[in-house]
Amino acid sequence: MVTMAYEIPVTQARAELAELINRVVYGGERVVVTRHGKPLIALVSAADLQRLEAEEAATEEQVISSVSSINSAPSAQGERRRFGIAAEHRPHDGNGNGRDA
Fold this sequence. Notes:
Elements: E1 5-9, H1 10-15, H2 17-25, E2 30-35, E3 38-43, H3 46-69, H4 76-83
Parallel strand pairs: 1-2
Antiparallel strand pairs: 2-3
Region (Disordered): 66-101
Pfam families: PhdYeFM_antitox
Function: Antitoxin component of a type II toxin-antitoxin (TA) system.
């Protein structure tokens, strides 16, 4: 279920903070405080915050699990052997002979 948020300018929110808290706690609303029409902060109930944090933790665990299940990438040395690549980059010493200085 998606709950629509009630938007209120920060100057008005200052004057109505107690009422906004009641709307959030007892009315189950979410309140977005805006400045110049742009969202600044959100007021949500403690239960709502706990649910959002649990969802965030579950998503993070899913990402970690997905990344952990991916086989590690083959090494460059292994790929050279696999494809029979003999060339290798070696830095030049400035004289064009391909040796380090």
